[in-house]
């Protein structure tokens, strides 16, 4: 975080503000961890702050300290609208385009508050007065730590704040195995553990609280996996019927796409998940090496993200979506090399 951003944030927070913190729709560990981490810090320095999520988040994140204070826009729309209207500052975390927040988009477009963006995805929009964007960062949680450090606020890092940021870094780095995990990331994590983050607790709560139905759904997903050796690609499909059969709950498919990359010789892994309620096929892309799934998702599936992790969507039926995907691979064969 550069000196200009630091000075701007110090000036902004030198006076009492009414602050709203918002992550992207379908918030993941980094989104919830970063918003909670920032919320704990802002409250700790005497600021008035609230977190509003566009929709619900997975059960395996609801153990996080003060997660019960998060306002769900879909469940408490009137209160959320009032808070956004009254806000003097709105922090947007872990996304960089207002199209990522669903029904909240028009409310934020009309809001009179000053906007602060903290995000590590590619191609940020320019809606914020203060933009801290860095695609080299492991996670938005690491960036929130940098903000706190830049504001000389590390003395305000409580165990609750520390474990919030630790959890987001842990999940967004694939338990510290992705290429975005740097020596700096490990130094930040070490500081968070020293501040009271119980790392074993975070791992257990996120990864070791499976239900039988989720494991059966994983079995279904792996059975559906198709391996295309000529393109070093593996993809999984999950229909709405299959999700219903295994009592799908939000977050149950988290991480399924990564199983494709555990196969020797596979550099591109994809999962297609039908969502009949929204009328779309939700798609997650993962890759190893230099193949940019961000560019692939942006070019073909109305999405984007990082070089090695991105999301997208299709309004075609499942069979047509998969057929389109397979037809595109020939154009990338030279780039898909193990």
Automatic annotation (TrEMBL):
GO terms for molecular function: nucleic acid binding. Pfam families: DHH, DHHA1. It comes from the Bacteria. Residues 18-169 form the DDH domain. InterPro entries: DDH_dom, DHH_sf, DHHA1_dom, Oligoribo/pAp-PDE_c-di-AMP_PDE. Residues 248-316 form the DHHA1 domain. This is Bifunctional oligoribonuclease/PAP phosphatase NrnA. It comes from Arenibacter aquaticus.
């Amino acid at each position: 975080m550069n000196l200009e951003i630091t000075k701007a944030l110090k000036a902004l927070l030198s006076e009492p503000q009414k602050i709203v913190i918002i992550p992207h729709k379908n918030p993941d560990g980094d989104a919830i961890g970063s918003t909670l981490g920032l919320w704990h810090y802002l409250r700790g320095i005497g600021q008035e702050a609230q977190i509003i999520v566009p929709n619900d988040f997975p059960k395996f994140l609801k153990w996080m300290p003060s997660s019960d204070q998060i306002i769900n826009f879909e469940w408490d729309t009137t209160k959320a609208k009032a808070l956004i209207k009254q806000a003097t500052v709105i922090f947007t975390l872990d996304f960089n385009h207002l199209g990522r927040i669903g029904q909240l988009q028009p409310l934020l477009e009309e809001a009179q508050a000053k906007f602060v963006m903290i995000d590590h995805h590619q191609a940020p929009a320019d809606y914020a007065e203060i933009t801290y964007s860095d695609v080299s960062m492991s996670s938005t949680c690491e960036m929130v730590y940098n903000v706190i450090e830049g504001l000389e606020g590390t003395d305000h890092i409580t165990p609750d704040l520390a474990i919030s940021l630790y959890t987001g870094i842990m999940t967004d780095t694939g338990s510290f195995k992705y290429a975005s995990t740097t020596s700096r990331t490990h130094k930040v994590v070490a500081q968070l553990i020293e501040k009271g983050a119980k790392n074993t607790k975070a791992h257990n709560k996120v990864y070791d609280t499976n239900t039988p139905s989720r494991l059966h759904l994983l079995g279904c997903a792996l059975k559906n996996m198709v391996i295309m050796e000529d393109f070093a690609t593996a993809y999984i499909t999950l229909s709405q019927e299959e999700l219903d059969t295994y009592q799908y709950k939000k977050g149950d498919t988290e991480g399924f796409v990564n199983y494709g990359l555990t196969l020797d010789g596979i550099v591109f892994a994809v999962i297609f998940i039908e969502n009949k309620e929204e009328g779309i096929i939700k798609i997650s892309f993962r890759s190893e090496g230099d193949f940019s799934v961000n560019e692939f998702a942006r070019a073909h599936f109305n999405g984007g993200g990082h070089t090695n992790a991105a999301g997208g969507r299709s309004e075609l039926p499942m069979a047509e979506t998969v057929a389109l995907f397979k037809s595109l691979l020939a154009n990338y064969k030279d780039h898909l090399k193990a």
